[in-house]
Design goal:
about 350 residues; two-stranded antiparallel sheet; 11 strands; disordered N terminus
Length: about 350
């Protein structure tokens, strides 16, 4: 996937460059933000030990840096992905986002279709060249067509999809994603299912023309499932049924550890998939001391912060499928969102690297 090779020849040079860039930071931060100590001569061990997050709710994610080469060996093809909106990062310009990704050791970036569409062909070419030099590839873009919207809005968005899909193709992007609400206040299961199947088939056909796939994220959160009068798809098995009903071969899954856990799905469910059926992976943890059915979707933790969700079994089973694509954090975490972009990227990258250490060779 993407425009840049993920092979090991880029890893060592990129890693050395990333460690040097990690020392170049603004001079001051709030006491609630990540503090990096600048020294002319500092060992890697000393740097890591002194770069702890002071915010108590995020202290668990401050494990030592994991070499990207080791991550690549443990999970060949998987990338540590920067998806800015999921972690409260406000940078929207692709070049600035790529610089943040390279600085903090991410190896892929979510494409911003709006930003890419506003660029000229030459600007997009320069962006692709920059990403190659930084050892970055593309993650997955949010689908610009909302299956959930009114018929009128859906048709307007669908009419723009061929253009945006070609923009994504022009930079080497091959993946999009969307999510399925787990309940409806007005629409019965069968009616909702038919609408999703019909519309997904149309979206998938346009993406297939440009060699792209779309991933569906089912929402397992119990508090969202019971919000609407009519329950809808909220498990892996039901999502399989929907994909099968479309008849499209380029529709797959976004597997989110939070929703996998909330839905009561198992490692056997993950193992039933092939790697090419998984478009992207989301990693999150859950707050301690909250009953599973009472958990709030918008109040999560960074990966492996609490150990409530079994990230090891989740990741290792995904690895066995042969999945090669973006692994993202989607914590919807208020303390993280209050950080500036640089500190939020640093905390997120460290949590993902810590999670990658759980993957067995």
């Amino acid at each position: 996937m993407g425009v840049a090779s993920k092979g090991s020849p880029h890893i060592t040079r990129f890693r050395l460059r990333q460690l040097r860039l990690a020392l170049i930071v603004p001079p001051t931060y709030s006491h609630l933000k990540l503090r990096l100590l600048l020294m002319k001569k500092i060992s890697r061990r000393t740097f890591v030990n002194r770069s702890a997050l002071s915010l108590a709710s995020l202290s668990a994610v401050t494990a030592s840096l994991t070499p990207l080469k080791m991550s690549a060996q443990l999970a060949p093809g998987m990338t540590i992905d920067l998806t800015p909106g999921a972690i409260g990062v406000n940078t929207s310009r692709p070049i600035e986002l790529n610089a943040l990704a390279a600085k903090h050791g991410f190896t892929s970036v979510a494409p911003n279709l709006t930003g890419l569409a506003a660029m000229s062909d030459s600007q997009r070419g320069e962006l692709v060249a920059q990403m190659k030099s930084q050892g970055l590839s593309w993650g997955t873009a949010g689908c610009p067509v909302s299956i959930r919207d009114s018929a009128e809005d859906y048709r307007e968005q669908l009419a723009q999809l061929p253009k945006l899909s070609k923009v994504l193709t022009s930079v080497g992007g091959t993946r999009m994603n969307t999510y399925i609400p787990p309940s409806s206040r007005t629409e019965t299961y069968l009616s909702n299912f038919k609408r999703w199947s019909t519309r997904l088939k149309e979206v998938a056909a346009i993406l297939e023309d440009n060699g792209q796939r779309i991933g569906l994220e089912y929402i397992g959160t119990h508090t969202l499932l019971v919000r609407g009068k009519y329950p809808f798809i909220h498990t892996m098995a039901e999502t399989k049924d929907l994909i099968a009903d479309t008849g499209a071969s380029n529709i797959g899954f976004v597997l989110d550890s939070w929703h996998w856990w909330q839905a009561g799905d198992s490692v056997a469910d993950i193992a039933s998939l092939s790697g090419d059926q998984i478009i992207a992976v989301d990693l999150n943890d859950a707050p301690k001391g909250v009953e599973k059915k009472a958990q709030i979707d918008s109040q999560r933790e960074l990966p492996v912060a609490t150990g409530v969700i079994d990230a090891s079994s989740f990741l290792n089973t995904i690895k066995e499928t042969g999945f090669d694509g973006p692994v993202r954090a989607e914590p919807f975490n208020a303390p993280l969102n209050r950080m500036d972009d640089d500190a939020a990227c640093a905390a997120t990258a460290e949590s993902l690297k810590k999670a990658f250490q759980l993957i067995k060779g």
